[in-house]
Amino acid sequence: MDTIARLAQEGKAEVPVYAIGADRRVATRPFEVAGSPLFVAEGIFAAEIVEECRRRGLLAGAYALRRPRGTTFVRRLTRDLAEQRKAPKVLLRRGVALLRAEPAVLRRQTGLGAEAARARDVLRRVAGLVASHPHH
Description:
alpha+beta
């Protein structure tokens, strides 16, 4: 939360670098929003901080992508195989487990305050937020 607050208030912060294959953070790197009035925090755990961001006045919007599960499975598996994140058998088994868990994940994210929406709707809403922002 401190990093999110620094990005929102100062426009720069040190952000973590993760090694997905190792399942851990391996470093940090400087990140700047380069004058943008908004930034996007994304990922499977982003919904965990929605309420705190809202409480601190840092939240412009919170969305959980609603996609066809098969499409998500194929995209994830293709990416993970191309990046050689783990052994193919492990990636396939993990992908099937995530495919089955996806409805519960979406329910959890919306329960934490994110709004379920299709990607094109999220992009349209974010574009509207940027256009209506006073520092645009």
